[in-house]
Amino acid sequence: MQEGFELIDPSQLTEFLVFITVKHGQEAAFLRAAAANRAGSIKEPGNLRFEMYQSAERPQDFLFAEKYKSLDAATAHRQTPHFLEFLKVLETVQAFPRRREPGDAVPHNYKPIPHT
Length: 116
Description:
Layout: E1 15-21, H1 27-41, E2 47-55, E3 61-68, H2 71-77, H3 81-93, E4 99-102, E5 110-112
Antiparallel strand pairs: 1-3, 1-4, 2-3, 2-5
Helix pairs in contact: 1-3
């Protein structure tokens, strides 16, 4: 490990970005499941942010920007029925495993997906 760099366990984050790539033609199925997950997530008492974005350059690339009050709130989110249902759909539509990174800065080429 290089000096000055610290490995971060993504499961230990309270504010993060989740990058998801779905298979071509699966965007609509993903968006339905993601919207239901967001609707449930923003009602969680520990949720401070849950925004969805789609790449302007690659329509199969999506991003969630999430923030929770605490690690316990983030962990509780991953045990909710809406999240578990979303995972079932995600397993069938994602091109490869999602990636979670620390931070809150959404890349400029991602555009917000409005709440419906």
